[in-house]
Amino acid sequence: MCSLRRGLPGRSPAPRATIHCARAVSSRRGSADSFSRARERKGVVRLVEVDRLSKSFGDRLAVTDVSFTLEAGTTLAIVGESGSGKTTIARMLAGLETPTAGRIAVCGDDRSRPARRASERRDRARQLQIVFQDPYSSLDPRQSLSTCLDEVLRLHHPAMDRAARAARVAELASLTGLDGRQQSALPRELSGGQRQRVAIARALAAEPAVMLLDESVSALDVSVQAQILNLLADIRAATGVGYILISHDLAVVRQLSDRSLVLRHGRVVEHGPTSEVLDQPTHPYTRLLRDSVPRPGRRPARPANS
Ligand SMILES: Nc1ncnc2c1ncn2[C@@H]1O[C@H](COP(=O)(O)OP(=O)(O)OP(=O)(O)O)[C@@H](O)[C@H]1O
């Protein structure tokens, strides 16, 4: 996997995503809170700050008072059973839902209200990209990887000429382990794992500071899943991108994330380093989630009275 990093010739290991974000943070330094400034002085780039976020749909509270941060080069996992509010948080981060209360900042820019102009939407997309569980539905069936990446590069990097774009397409394909045939293939001609690599390459083409991985490896079989997780870890090390990993699979969470946040009925019940959350959970719900993972010889835990 290390060879993938050689696919970024001449690029500084100092992550471009981080540089992009650091600029955004310093450009609005006046409104950054004192905690952010203290972290910046220590050289930690805070990519995402979510503060007391809530969302209700009518009288249904989907998310209540959720706070977390994400730093460059790290992964935060959001776990919880179906209906616990994971997707709603993801949709608010991506700007697809407006919070009922609370604040979201990505790269220091406030996202608590919808983007008004196309340029603002483009800037936001450049800061945060999403990779969904099913790339098939999010890929244009008529576009090969090369065409798809070229389009993203033209949108986000208008100063790049055709040759620079072609070089960057080759670089991204190499980074995500897609060969020449796969670069010119249509989505239907690729396997699920290859399509997921295409979706990752497309997200990376925008050079985002943050990637939101929404059950991105859930549909893949275990060996392909392991390859994609290794790939994501390599990309994180090479670029400093931060990941928000939404997953119900605790093995995936353990492999890729540094910190985990456990949601129940839209509220955070536990939040801390992943190893501590999974190995020494303090909340009964986290214990239940962990003990529900099927393991040889283990009986499923009975739900507590809840
Ligand atoms: N547009 C909506 N209108 C009304 N209720 C909604 C809407 N979107 C989500 N909800 C409700 O909000 C709660 C949280 O849903 P959400 O999709 O965020 O959960 P989740 O943890 O992502 O679940 P899953 O793992 O099944 O995707 C659920 O009770 C859901 O029914």
List the helices and strands and how they pair.
Elements lengths: L1 H4 L10 H12 L6 H8 L4 E12 L2 E12 L3 E5 L6 H8 L7 E6 L2 E2 L7 H10 E4 L3 H4 L6 H12 L5 H14 L4 H5 L7 H14 L4 E5 L7 H18 L2 E5 L3 H7 L2 E6 L2 E7 H6 L4 H8 L15
Parallel strand pairs: 3-8, 3-9, 6-7, 7-8
Antiparallel strand pairs: 1-2, 1-4, 4-5, 9-10
Helix pairs in contact: 7-8, 7-10, 8-10
The structure holds adenosine-5'-triphosphate.
**Lateral strand order in the biggest sheet:** 6-7-8-3-9-10
Give the SSE order as H and E letters: HHHEEEHEEHEHHHHHEHEHEEHH
What's the number of domains? 1
The geometry reads as globular
- Stretches where pLDDT is under 50 for at least 5 consecutive residues are 1-42
Report on the biggest sheet: 6 strands, mixed
User: How many individual helices?
Assistant: 14
Question: What can you tell me about this protein's structure?
Answer:
Pfam families: ABC_tran, oligo_HPY. This is ABC transporter ATP-binding protein. GO terms for molecular function: ATP binding; ATP hydrolysis activity. Residues 296-306 have a biased composition (Basic residues). The protein has helices at residues 2-5, 16-27, 34-41, 86-93, 118-127, 135-138, 145-156, 162-175, 180-184, 192-205, 222-239, 250-256, 274-279, 284-291; strands at 46-57, 60-71, 75-79, 101-106, 109-110, 128-131, 210-214, 242-246, 259-264, 267-273. The chain is α/β, with parallel strands linked by helices. It has a single domain (2-291), classed as Rossmann fold (3-Layer(aba) Sandwich), CATH 3.40.50.300. Helix 7 packs across helix 8 (162-175), helix 7 packs parallel to helix 10 and helix 8 (162-175) crosses helix 10 (192-205). The longest helix is centred in the C-terminal third of the chain and has 18 residues, at 222-239. The protein is globular and about 55 Å long. The protein starts with a helix and ends in a 15-residue tail after the last helix. The model is unreliable at 1-42 (pLDDT under 50). The structure holds adenosine-5'-triphosphate (ATP). Adenosine-5'-triphosphate is lined by residues 57, 60, 62, 80, 82-88.
